[in-house]
Design brief:
Blueprint: H1 2-7, H2 11-33, H3 46-64, H4 68-90, H5 99-127
């Protein structure tokens, strides 16, 4: 049932995913530019946190905007968000923006979008075509 909801999201779920995408993006931007927020780079979790957060954003974007054009739009928007947050971090005391963090963000977004795409592809093969795409 859950895989069907991800593969064939009804309009209400797509709207909820878009709202969640917006809310999580705002919260993430706030956390990324606030000194002292997030895991320490010393703990080795920094890149994992970046990848996981943007992976969730990518998955929510893929649910909100299904289809190839949606995936391209999601990837472009999330790559711009990754670049903007890294640039903003470089301007905040006690924070530092970096190419490696931006790359972790983009990889995470791509992974999230890909997971939803693969679920959708599997369910389409099992059940049939997606009427709303």
């Amino acid at each position: 049932m859950l895989l069907n909801l991800i593969a064939f999201p009804p309009p209400e779920l797509r709207r909820l995913a878009a709202l969640g995408l917006f809310g999580l993006s705002v919260a993430l931007c706030w956390a990324l530019v606030t000194p002292g927020m997030g895991p320490s780079e010393d703990m080795g979790l920094d890149k994992l946190a970046h990848t996981g957060a943007f992976g969730l954003l990518g998955a929510m974007a893929a649910i909100a905007w299904p289809g190839r054009l949606g995936a391209i739009l999601a990837m472009a928007v999330l790559a711009l968000l990754a670049g903007a947050t890294e640039l903003a971090q470089s301007l905040v005391p006690e924070r530092n923006g970096g190419i490696a963090d931006g790359l972790a963000d983009v990889v995470g977004a791509a992974l999230g979008i890909t997971v939803v795409y693969l679920i959708r592809r599997r369910q389409v093969a099992r059940i049939g075509s997606y009427q709303n795409m």
